[in-house]
Each structure stands twice: as structure tokens, then as C-alpha cells.
Amino acid sequence: MRLSGIPVSPGIAVGTAQIVHVRNVPVIKVFLPESRLDQEIARLKAAIDATIREIEAQKASARSILSEDFLAIFDVHTIILKDPALINGAVVRIKRERVNAEYALQGAMQDMVRGLTETEDPYFQERATDVDDLHRRVQLHLSGPLPERDIWTGDNLVILAETLTPSETSALHNAPIVGFATERGARTSHTAIIARSLEIPAVVGVKGLMASGGSSKNVIVDGLEGVVILDPTQEELQEYERRKEAYGNYKSRILADARQEARTVDGHRILVSANIDLSDEVESALTVGANGCGLYRSEFLYLSHSPDLPTEEQHQRHYEKIAEAFYPHRVVIRTLDLGGEKYFHAVLDRREHNPVLGVRAIRFCLKHPDIFKTQLRGLLRASRLKNVSILFPLVTTFEEFEQALSLLETCKEELRTEGVPFDEDIPLGIMVEVPSCALTAASFAPHVDFFSIGTNDLIQYLLAIDRNNDSVAHLYDPLHPAVLECIARVCDAAGSSGKHVSVCGEAAADPSMIPLLIGYGVEELSMTPSAILEVKDQIRNLSFRSCQKLVKKIRKVKTSREVAERVSAFLNGGSRSV
Amino acid sequence: MIRRDIVVMNRLGLHARAAAKLVQLANQFKAQVTLSTNQMCADAKSILGVLTLAAAKDTPLTIETNGPDEQQAMEKIESLIKSGFGEE
Question: Residue A8 and residue A27: Cα distance in Å, rounded?
């Protein structure tokens, strides 16, 4: 049976189907005789201990993929499970009400959640779902040995699941997994990110997967085309084994070219740089020959210190490390983009109804100049190698830009007075994510060193689509003529002032978008490190002149379908002709 | 039993991250460790208890340790609170 979904991590996997159910154990109240109570208490303690051991093991295995700051979450889980208020609460219930461990635990956990919520500590309010997850896991231990443990034997497993929680995905890290397919999810979901970082093929949003996958033995996951085949035929198996091999050969060829520049057949150079969230990813970016970091998302530095804020020295040390790692390449550090739908921090106002349109990014920073200045000063101090650039996110009006600029100037002046060295020529850019900014790019062009087009948010704002809403996801369309028009305008404005344009959204790694972006005059594509090799390879097979001709023709096109057809015709012939 | 008075010095008080550090430390000792403000008393080995104290900066606290390693427990906990929980 052939199902389709969204390909989120490239490659082809052929393996044994392994269904992962998020099991919710129904809790039943049972009255016990007095003589059984001690045994029941021992059973409860053993289940809690087993869960703690499991968390510690997960922490150990996640150490290689997550940084210390994120590992601290595992410690918090352990502390909650060791809390005497929880254990005593459950034990007292067993003794007093003469009930089973499961029921007593449920009551004590509910008290715990209530207690944590009442402390009004935002960090723990955010952790409420974690506590639910912990509860479920202890209940699983109470209900008997975990079946997962036994079934995880075997090789070449392809995981089929409704969705995977962070704790489940990190537990999968050491299992012999060759592919993922999930019923729900999008490109940005947790499974997608982990799969890409582990370089395991994955397809998400596969409708009907759980209904049909239950009895399957073998499965093929095609993370290139977004296809999942349950119990493939002999012909399909042969076909996909062949494709898998071809893809493997292709991968080793492009890896061999990692150090080479990405130049079109007619010699036009495109910088291919990395989007980095966590400093752990720097290594993989360098391995694939990234031309620097085109987007460093500083949010994670803040999240890892939540509910505190990083100090100026912490900013400086953090950015310096990245700048040193990429030297002599450039590192573009985007100033704080907290808010929106993605990131929450104790400093934000949680009562906003529509945070995507609310006080996020530069709006937040201008409202809190003290927080902003700490980051700017740290950034400037980290610029001594002269390879750091500053990028302001979500600029909507020229006044915002002026205010941000004047704060930056204040910080520079302060540092000069203090005698602290920094790069006096530090390049400054703005992110083009709001349509107003794209349409008025010409006003900004003389005052910035570069533009960075954030296509994900630009498309969301331009086409009025909530990226996380499955029912409108099909309207999210980078090839929409309005999106292309915005990109063209920014490139025109930058071009006439001799300024640099980069693109750092998903579009930068989208094979249909790349010839268009290059044709418009985009000089840098920044993307998740795992996409870099393939994008470089594609660029080497394009001709700049024919990309320019292509965008001229497309400017008159009315529908994205027609754009798609033209791009596809272009890629299937003529893309190399000069 | 040892008892000592101290004042919470770090800017954010006994918030989640600091409380987690304190509980982790208290759990390393056999001694019973309690913290009290002039209103409540909490088991320092319970994250829920410590958070419920809601001790902001400048709150006076009384630490009590009771058990075989009470001396060592007192010293370590006192110095953690005095260090401002290693916040910079």
C-alpha cells in the first residue's frame, strides 16, 4: 500500500515496520486488603525508580546531540520524580484509602501539577506537559515491563508513529533505526528536526498511516519524494533498493565536492551558508563546507538561560566561539527573535492572543532597550575577528530600524569610551519578513549593508497563513507570484545600491526556488547544514544567464502552478545553457 | 540540629532554576533539611515545597539541618544561597 506525506529528511529507507504507540494507560481504582498495602507501596517506588533510571539513561545518550543547557531538562524531570511531596502523597493515599498504586499516583501527580501551576513560576508552568509525560511513563512502568524494550531488537527498523514526543525521539537515538514515518507533523516538527540531524530519511503528515500500518511487516520510506510503501511488492523493493543505492552514490559524490565553491556553469559564485540554532551544529556545517553562517538564531541562548537572561559576557563568549569556529567565513547573528509561535521565555507577555502579530523580535527589543543593549554590547565585543555581522529581525517600519540603529550607535559609543575593542565596520543587515519591509526595501537599501529574506515568515504574513495550521498548509506556497514579486523588489533595491542579498528561509534549499532566487540576484543561500551539499551541487548545474532569463519570463505569470510548470521545464532542460 | 538565618541574595530569588539546584544539593545529604520564611516551612528536598516558599530577593530564611551529616549539609546549602546560586 502506497501512502504519501511530506518529505522532511532526504534519503530512502527499506526496513522492518516498528509501530510506536503513545500508550495512555487507563487508571482504574482498585481497593486492596490491608495485607497488600506494603507490597503496593514497594511496587510504586520501584516504578518511580525505574523511570528515574530511564531518564538518566536518556540523558546520557542525548549528551552527544544536545548541549549541556538542554540536558538540564532531564535533571528537572528527575527532581520532580524524587520529590518527597509526590512520593509521600502517593504513599499516604495507598495507606489511607487502601487503593492501588496507579490510582494513588494519579492523585499525587494531579496535586503536583496543581502545586506547580500555583507557584506562578513560568518555568514550571511551561513544564506542565512534561509532568503529564512523566506521569504516563511511571504508569507504564506500573503496568508491567515496557514492551518497547523487547521489540527494539532487530535491525533496520522503520518507526511508524502517530507523532513522537521529545522523550521518545531522544530514546530512539541509539536504536538501529533507518527511517521515520509519522501520521501527523510538519517540516518543522520535532521528528523532522531530529531525523535531519541524524540524517535518517523521514516522511511526516502521512494520512492513514496508523490505520493501515498496524499489520505491516516491511516498509519503504522515501524521504525524497514523500512516499511511504507498506508491505511493498518484490518489484517495488527492487526499484527502491536501486534508488537507495543511486542516492548513496550521489551523496558520496557531493560530499567529495564539499570544499569546492558553488559556482554556476558560467562562473557566477553563490555563497552557501548555514542556519545555526545550537552551537552543536557548527561542526556539521563545517564538514559540509558551509561558506559561513548566514543566520545564527540567538533565541536558543536565551531559552537555555530561561527564566534568567544571558549576561553581556555570556553573549560575548557564545558569539565569539561561533565566530572563531567559522573564521575566516562570516557569521550573521540575528538579534533576539523571541515570541511568535515558536519560542517562549519568561520575559514575554503570555496573554497575547495572537503572538505572531504581537510583540515579538525587534518590537520586543525596542520595548526592552536594556535587554536589547546587553545583547548588542555582547555582539559588538564578540566582533574582534571582524567576521561578525548583525541582523535585525522583523523590521516593519523605517522608524523601528532607526531606533534600533541608534541603540546600536549608543552601544558602540559606550564601548569606545570604555576602551573596549570591537569591529568599527561591523556590517548591519535587516531581515525582510514583513511585506511592508519588502515593498519599501529601497528606503532601507542606502542604510544597510545587506538584506536577509526570511521566506518562512514572509510567506506566512504575505499569504495570511498560519504555518502550524494543517488545514491551510496547502496554501503555503513559495512560488506564489506575490512572494516572487517581493523577493524581486528586494533584489532590485539592493542591486541599485550595491548591497548584498541573502535568503535564509526554507526556500533557500528548495530546488524549484533556487534558480529563481539566483536569477533575481540573490548572492547567498543560508540553510540547515544537512541541505548544503545538495544545494551546492544544484548550483553547479545551473547557468546564471539562463536563471536571469527565466525570472524575466516569470514576472508576467499569474498563478503559482504556471510558475511551477515553467521552473520544472527549466530544470528538465535548458538550465545549464549559457 | 543546626539552625542558621540567611537572606536570599540573588536577583530572581528562589525561582525554578535556583530551586532545582538547591533541591539537587539537599538530596545529596542524609540529614533532613528544612527552609522556613516567617510564614511557611518547606522540605528542601522537595521542589514543590521550595517553590511554594516563593522566596524573593531579600527574603530572610531560616535553614535547619538535622541528621548525621547536618554540619556539612548546612555549610554547602548556606554557601549555595550566599553565592547567589552561581548566577552572574
Answer: 36
Coil, helix or strand at residue A359: coil
| Residue A360: predicted pLDDT | 87
The confidence band for A573, taking pLDDT boundaries of 50, 70 and 90, is confident
Kindly state which CATH superfamily the domain B2-86 is placed in: HPr-like (3.30.1340.10)
* B48 with A82: Cβ contact below 8 A: no
Residue of B10, B12, B15, B46 marked active site: B15
| In CATH, A34-142 is 3.90.190.20 | no
| Distance from C-alpha of A165 to C-alpha of A190, rounded to nearest angstrom | 8
Reported pTM: 0.63
Cα separation, A382 vs A445, whole angstroms: 26
Query: Per the omega criterion (within 30 degrees of 0), is the bond before A328 cis?
Result: yes
Sign of the Cα pseudo-torsion (A461, A465, A467, A473, in order): negative
**H or E, element range at A390:** strand A388-392
Q: Give, in order, the Cα–Cα distances in Å from A148 to each of A23, A45, A543.
A: 11, 21, 51
Closest by CA to A173, choosing from A66, A50, A276, is A66
- For A257-571, CATH number? 3.20.20.60
Residue B78 forms contact with A (CB below 8 Å): no
User: For position A255, what pLDDT does the model report?
Assistant: 87
Identify the residue with better confidence: A191 or A86.
A86
Among residues A469, A547, A555, which one has the least CA distance to residue A514? A547
Q: Which three cell numbers stand for residue A125?
A: 508552568
Domain range annotation of chain B: 2-86
Reference A372, options A346, A327, A337, A397; nearest CA is: A337
Average pLDDT (B33-56) is 85
ipTM: 0.76
Q: Does A564 touch chain B (CB under 8 A)?
A: no
- Per the CB < 8 A criterion, the answer to whether A381 and A392 are in contact is no
Check if A34-142 and A257-571 are the same fold.
no
Q: What is the mean pLDDT of chain A?
A: 87
> Is A110 in the B-facing interface, judged by CB distances under 8 Å?
no
Contact A307 B12 (CB under 8 A): yes
